[in-house]
Amino acid sequence: MPNGGLPDDRPLPVAVDELATDRATIAADRWRTRQNESCPTVDPRRGQMTAESPSRDEPAQPTNAERIGVWLVGARGNVATMSIVGARAIATGRAETTGMVTEREPVSSLELPPVSAFVFGGHDIDPTSLVDQAERQCERNGVPDEETLASVRDDLAAVDERIEVGTAVNCGAAVTDDSDHLDRELAIRTVVDQIHDDYESFRTAHEIDRLVVVNVASTEPELASPDRYDTREALEDAIDSDDRDLPASVLYAYAAIDAGHPFINFTPSTGNALGGIRELAVDRGVPHVGRDAKTGETLVKSALAPMFAGRNLNVLSWEGHNILGNKDGLVLEDEENAAGKLSSKGDVLESILPDVGHNRVRIDYTPSLADWKTAWDYIHFEGFLNTEMTMQFTWEGSDSALAAPLVLDLVRLIVHADEFGEGGFQPHLASFFKAPIGVDEHDFSAQLHWLYEYAARHSDV
Amino acid sequence: MPNGGLPDDRPLPVAVDELATDRATIAADRWRTRQNESCPTVDPRRGQMTAESPSRDEPAQPTNAERIGVWLVGARGNVATMSIVGARAIATGRAETTGMVTEREPVSSLELPPVSAFVFGGHDIDPTSLVDQAERQCERNGVPDEETLASVRDDLAAVDERIEVGTAVNCGAAVTDDSDHLDRELAIRTVVDQIHDDYESFRTAHEIDRLVVVNVASTEPELASPDRYDTREALEDAIDSDDRDLPASVLYAYAAIDAGHPFINFTPSTGNALGGIRELAVDRGVPHVGRDAKTGETLVKSALAPMFAGRNLNVLSWEGHNILGNKDGLVLEDEENAAGKLSSKGDVLESILPDVGHNRVRIDYTPSLADWKTAWDYIHFEGFLNTEMTMQFTWEGSDSALAAPLVLDLVRLIVHADEFGEGGFQPHLASFFKAPIGVDEHDFSAQLHWLYEYAARHSDV
Amino acid sequence: MPNGGLPDDRPLPVAVDELATDRATIAADRWRTRQNESCPTVDPRRGQMTAESPSRDEPAQPTNAERIGVWLVGARGNVATMSIVGARAIATGRAETTGMVTEREPVSSLELPPVSAFVFGGHDIDPTSLVDQAERQCERNGVPDEETLASVRDDLAAVDERIEVGTAVNCGAAVTDDSDHLDRELAIRTVVDQIHDDYESFRTAHEIDRLVVVNVASTEPELASPDRYDTREALEDAIDSDDRDLPASVLYAYAAIDAGHPFINFTPSTGNALGGIRELAVDRGVPHVGRDAKTGETLVKSALAPMFAGRNLNVLSWEGHNILGNKDGLVLEDEENAAGKLSSKGDVLESILPDVGHNRVRIDYTPSLADWKTAWDYIHFEGFLNTEMTMQFTWEGSDSALAAPLVLDLVRLIVHADEFGEGGFQPHLASFFKAPIGVDEHDFSAQLHWLYEYAARHSDV
Amino acid sequence: MPNGGLPDDRPLPVAVDELATDRATIAADRWRTRQNESCPTVDPRRGQMTAESPSRDEPAQPTNAERIGVWLVGARGNVATMSIVGARAIATGRAETTGMVTEREPVSSLELPPVSAFVFGGHDIDPTSLVDQAERQCERNGVPDEETLASVRDDLAAVDERIEVGTAVNCGAAVTDDSDHLDRELAIRTVVDQIHDDYESFRTAHEIDRLVVVNVASTEPELASPDRYDTREALEDAIDSDDRDLPASVLYAYAAIDAGHPFINFTPSTGNALGGIRELAVDRGVPHVGRDAKTGETLVKSALAPMFAGRNLNVLSWEGHNILGNKDGLVLEDEENAAGKLSSKGDVLESILPDVGHNRVRIDYTPSLADWKTAWDYIHFEGFLNTEMTMQFTWEGSDSALAAPLVLDLVRLIVHADEFGEGGFQPHLASFFKAPIGVDEHDFSAQLHWLYEYAARHSDV
Ligand SMILES: NC(=O)c1ccc[n+]([C@@H]2O[C@H](COP(=O)([O-])OP(=O)(O)OC[C@H]3O[C@@H](n4cnc5c(N)ncnc54)[C@H](O)[C@@H]3O)[C@@H](O)[C@H]2O)c1
Ligand SMILES: NC(=O)c1ccc[n+]([C@@H]2O[C@H](COP(=O)([O-])OP(=O)(O)OC[C@H]3O[C@@H](n4cnc5c(N)ncnc54)[C@H](O)[C@@H]3O)[C@@H](O)[C@H]2O)c1
Ligand SMILES: NC(=O)c1ccc[n+]([C@@H]2O[C@H](COP(=O)([O-])OP(=O)(O)OC[C@H]3O[C@@H](n4cnc5c(N)ncnc54)[C@H](O)[C@@H]3O)[C@@H](O)[C@H]2O)c1
Ligand SMILES: NC(=O)c1ccc[n+]([C@@H]2O[C@H](COP(=O)([O-])OP(=O)(O)OC[C@H]3O[C@@H](n4cnc5c(N)ncnc54)[C@H](O)[C@@H]3O)[C@@H](O)[C@H]2O)c1
Ligand code: NA
Ligand code: NA
Questions:
Q1: Is C384's CB within 8 Å of D100's CB?
Q2: Strand order of the sheet with strand A118-124?
Q3: pLDDT band at C2 (very low <50, low <70, confident <90, very high)
Q4: Among all ligands shown, which has an atom nearest to the Cα of B248?
Q5: In what helix (H) or strand (E) does residue A203 lie, and over which residues does it extend?
Q6: Are D14 and D34 in contact (CB under 8 A)?
Q7: Which of B7, B33, B391 is the closest to A395 by Cβ?
Q8: Are A117 and A66 spatial neighbours (Cβ–Cβ below 8 Å)?
Q9: Shortest CA distance to D448 belongs to which of C312, A70, C160?
Q10: How confident is the model at residue A56 (pLDDT cuts 50, 70, 90)?
Q11: Structural domains of chain B sorted by starting position, each given as residue range(s) with its CATH number in brackets
């Protein structure tokens, strides 16, 4: 199939050259108005939609017999723990797949690896064992329930053995205060090498066919002037010259993509959003996605805001208050660490409702809520004849129960992209993220539509 | 352009033969999974997508110099009054067009008649003057405000002169108890003829180029076994044999479409949803749309429910409670009259979430709210690992301020369809309705997408 | 202390002669304005405030060494089950007393029997064992948790042995459809005698010192014209002449009070609210309370409505929607059975806000909620310069977890009243009920104040 | 009647010596448990309950023929404007008294001056005229409506003539940035003298019989270490030694009370809460009240929190989010100015629920809301058997429409206290304030009960 596997008449999404000087993203309005245009020309040597990406030697044919390594950065956190618990419980038939997008039509018609094929490992900086973490979640939140927990306890203990101490460079006081396991004296290049070695040892030890690295670690403070690392060259120079500003998420992403492992950034941290990493991924033909999974208030926003836009209602103010009680909330109490989260949450609205009068998001830490995240949003809008009206909603979700199935979905889907040699960012996975790399479209339906088109396209193969 | 102006490669919407025995509607799942299919064959003699519809002699070229007659059935009701107030205030530059879908990209790029070209008239069964109605709304609800009202008072008085007494056959006790202006002794055919004469006198008297009939009258009780009027022949036989079961909305629709006037059914009443009327519209090549405008709780549902579906979350219960204080609310207190409304509200959810465990909608009359409609929805859903979560929202909208701009939009858009000879039901207008005739898709984004495609297609012309 | 142990200068509550022709209740406004009045004269022979009630031979001195029999009518229902689970878990130190009013100052300063002294038994018409019921609650609602349940499983099994088949006379189809264990052929007097025998056998078998009967059975349909049983004589005549209109709750109450056992009516059923039963209780000097425990939405109302009243805000509409998923909800789906509940819920508001414009309460059955009761209340009110404002709240409570501690409180407090020979209705316990027998005051603070005064008065003893 | 008109047996409130070393407040728990105690002895020479306060020469007999001067500090603000509009509209029979506590039983049975007797004047630092302010409120908020506004426009213009430029010493940048009308070079004593002169000129010019000063100016930043002004002597020394730390509210209060004028502090600013001012008020026998009127979220809290306490429910977290759009909100955006407000709002909860796990109040500025204040409160609580439950509420009120009637109430009530020679703080007016001076009781019902007792006591006179 010429030009990247996309039929000539496909309306969405429109692929663009990711390496153009302006680092153009896929413009939102294209979805709405130019859906009959043919696909822009993509440089076959390095576009992410190209089947024959030069540096990859994976077969294009999917095979479900593979052993998929899932390396979780932040492997003992809530999201990681719930993902492992869920995957193992599903594998043994003890849990259902509710909440997994890949288990529902039309995405389920893709040939995707079963979660039973997942072999977990990871990095963390917290020594508390995975079993203890799961027990705490069971006790505080009731999720997982005792029975499910019992059925996976041995698996958790086994995975815990495969968790290595990670790096916490530039993760902010809120994160590193908790930890004294880290050698802060190492050169950045050495840190990268160690991470790389951890990946490879795991691959070898567990006979992994394909390794996916997933960042589910605590949110880092925002990186100042990320533009200085906008090219692969600038980034690699920085690593080599021991630039102490580079945050951990970038190092994990670099080590993964450089070695050809697909990378998922579930967090708001910089990671693969950096220009230099994106260029590296195109060069290596490695698929990567991110950032900041869309699981609660922002998900609702991305479904509701288009309604106000579509009806030409004038949103005067949209106030969002989030309260949550887990460690993620504690880290986000730190203004530094919260900055990135708040900006990715805020951007969604600005993009869908460019004329919104007032748009504020607050995140507060409320310990008693444990893993429950409650959001109250208040929307003040104006309609016909200047009539002012309001809508408000409250969302009460279990944070990690919303996140975990998406981790599993993303691993399955990035494996699929990897099998088909679709390197670079993955616009069809935009619906999973608050700040989808390379995509300006924040309308959840539009994003989902891209995913369904991807599924339709690949199901015909 | 062959087969109805639709390019072969258009993914959505998929046109079907409206007259197939099962009165097939456009299947929702098509949008999601078969978007690359080519358009099904439409019988060129009578399909609604055909340019050369035999019975129409309108020019295909749009012209904005026309005088558009807008005949409102229920012309002194809240929705009608607010529509007239708004149209006149916009025409004189005193009001903005917030809330009008046709005033926003991409629909605004269509060549549509300006609202200043609208000449209003109508039927009602309540003698209270339009000026009094508007003053009451101003006083009770603050909409319109005093200044706007003052600027259109003369226009309202002029329109009021053009309101004729309508028929209230089978409108239910809740409606007809209010009225003794109706001759219940007339034969049904005579009633139809009188309605027809009222349309034509208005056309002549006001030099109307194109007349659109809009049903904004009170909700009628549901018609029992509508299937008996499933063909044009059966319907016309019933009229001729003085079948006293036919409700007013069907008579208004019949008289309009039979005379070639586009018909909009803003209400849940039967009207043009009847098989016989739909066949007549195809025969006559007249565009018609309906039913039950989607302005509040159901609108939100149609934007939110796809989010739960898209994330494979399992909705256990969706409870919707509506309280409203206007005359519409009073009529809906009557269980008979409410039945249709409740079913069109409920269907939206069943369609988007076929596995929803429990789905109830309540409408209650709360006089102090006047024109304000408040809805509380409580959504109990289950995610990963059987985790139960909840979302709730409250919507507080001014009923007629939400409805009126859509009336103006629909008139403009049906005029456009009429100019282009696009007879029959109008799938691209599905986003305006709770129970869109001929369409099974209830996802607001998908429906809107069809409208945008229509706009894109016609903007290229 | 003369006239019933009440100091002359006590401002609240004002006792009245319960047997006056109009069955006067304690007027609400007294609390607010006449609190310095001295206590009205009470007929010493039969007033409920009298220490020397003729028919009682209990010692006035409280003693905690007693074994308290708690006979639950509806012993296998949710409330009963949670009460037994809680009492046993508290007795063994495995649960805390959160939610028990008697465990907090100033009520905790009274000398009350410990819950460890409670010996449970009861009537039911459903054969499902108490252990099964508790397991179902644990599984569906997470309350009690598995650990607590395990610790009381043996106790539950033991209590289950002491549950007799009760009568379901006039309990409505919603209740009796579930049951075929009842002999409908027995004469009413025989039924009363059997109930009486069940009480006495239990007393003897378990060496009970003091027996309290608690009605926690399903809500019955409202009794038509209860006035016909307004005297003890009329009631006893009806029993003897086999009047088939008498509902089960009256029979349980009659058998209890006639035999000198304090009676608690936790439900909206008629029971001890009947004039004839009230007269019997005065004659026998037996304390009794009811009806319809105030645990959720109505509790909030009784705390909030006085705020609107106190600030002279004009409540235009108060809408209350309750959704619940347990068997109580299922029974209340039946309009007949719901009538009493709705009226006791509605009265609270009418009493506190006599000028409320519109006051509606809805109860709907939403199975997925299991034992969770969610209420949404919408309050539309008017303030200064006709400014319209709104307040809304959502309450999400576990029905039986809110009810059970009050069952334990009430048993402890009625035992106290019984020890002090305080027969008749118990105005100081009004705060526990939606429709407190003999009391018109619905302001929760005022009701609570009476309880605190009672505690202060008796702590001085 | 000896000792201040309080009957010996009055249960509440319990008066204490305001000048005791610890500046003891009226303990909350007294209300609940010691309500039968007799009133503590009050030093007749200086207690605030004393009839024969030495420095006052007002007649003890109330007379309604008086002209009451109402001097508003912040006379052009929202609250002031709405108070004047309302008072004048009531005086001319154009507005009702909804929202006024003094117009409802039992308080209405007191002999209070009619609002028609009020003559308004005041200080402000903003030159925008009262008419302009009222027009802006009408336009932005719809309150007052156009008709009411028209009827009082001349009165507003007349009052505007009587508004003098005030002082803004230490009001914070958020306030003074708006103003350059202030001579910052004057000595503090000179400022006090000028304020005093403004009061006296107004009195003379308008033949005022009794002058009440009301602080409705913008919230000042919190005063650091207020203890240094804990005695009258320390305060007067500070004034004389030109202490530049003293904030404007203290100077306004000092000038008023020193000259014998009752003082109402409607704001969270220091004012009469200062020890030195309180001592001065006792010495002069002048009644004063404050601070921070309780009109919205905190009012609801003070009605609801006692319900959780009374039922022994364990509040784990109480989150309160306020959004408001008026100038008060803008000033409170400034963290300095917000501090006092947040602390008085927070204290209410700590006092009623001493064991509350987590208690946060946020105030955010949301311009589109204009005068509307919306609060969302989320209450996470634990009941029996550790069952976690939640309650949430949303309050949507018009800020100044809630405040204005209370300004009028307080003027009427403080005039009454003044007529009866009841100097010092006024515990019976605690229900009006978030941080009632001299009172620890925050339960709204208990506070209201004191007011009703006061009314009952004085109605008997
Ligand atoms: N839960 C959701 O719904 C959701 C949604 C979007 C994004 N996220 C993001 O996912 C991430 C994880 O969330 P969580 O709730 O599991 O948080 P968590 O605090 O429970 O877990 C984070 C884990 O990362 C570890 N960690 C921190 N810094 C690390 C480092 N430098 N290297 C290796 N490990 C490190 C911590 O020790 C911890 O075990 C957060 O960034 C959060 O913002 C979560
Ligand atoms: N307002 C909305 O947001 C909205 C949304 C969807 C549908 N609708 C529907 O629009 C319709 C109008 O709503 P409304 O709020 O204006 O109601 P309304 O009660 O204010 O007005 C209805 C008018 O129709 C007139 N009428 C009744 N029966 C008639 C008949 N047989 N012939 C002619 N006139 C008749 C009445 O006299 C009245 O003037 C209702 O059916 C309502 O359900 C409204
Ligand atoms: N849970 C609360 O917060 C609350 C509050 C106020 C009142 N109530 C009332 O308490 C009662 C019990 O509530 P629940 O949730 O436990 O209900 P439930 O349906 O779980 O239990 C009722 C039990 O009563 C039994 N029963 C029915 N009729 C009987 C009869 N005639 N004789 C003996 N047993 C009979 C049923 O078999 C069932 O086991 C209801 O009337 C309810 O309205 C409950
Ligand atoms: N509205 C309510 O419900 C409510 C409730 C409790 C407390 N309050 C308090 O009442 C006060 C007034 O509220 P508002 O909404 O009217 O605010 P506002 O900002 O509309 O009015 C305040 C006025 O005070 C003036 N001012 C500021 N500093 C002054 C000074 N030093 N001397 C004289 N005038 C000065 C301002 O110029 C302005 O005109 C605020 O402190 C607010 O916190 C209001
Ligand atoms: Na149609
Ligand atoms: Na009682």
A1: yes
A2: A163-165, A118-124, A68-73, A210-215, A263-265, A287-289, A424-425
A3: very low
A4: 2
A5: helix A188-205
A6: yes
A7: B391
A8: yes
A9: C312
A10: very low
A11: 68-293+401-458 (3.40.50.720), 297-398 (3.30.360.10)
